[in-house]
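task queued by scheduler; priority normal; single chain, no ligands, no partner chains; default sampling; output format set to C-alpha cells
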Amino acid sequence: MKIQLTLSTPRNPVAVPARMRQAGPHRRSGKALRQQHHQALRRELAHARPDPHSP
C-alpha cells in the first residue's frame, strides 16, 4: 500500500510583501500636484493687481 501526498506549489516569498504594498503611499500623484499648482497659479494671476505701466 502506497500513500501519495499531494503537495501544493511552493509560494513565492517575494510576492507576499509586494502584494501588501500594492496600495502604495497615501499621497497625491504627480499629475494631481501639477494640476494643483496650475490652479494656484491661475488663482494668483486672477487676483493680482493690474500693472499700471502695461498698455
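post-processing summary
- Helices lie at 15-20, 30-47.
- The mean pLDDT is 83.
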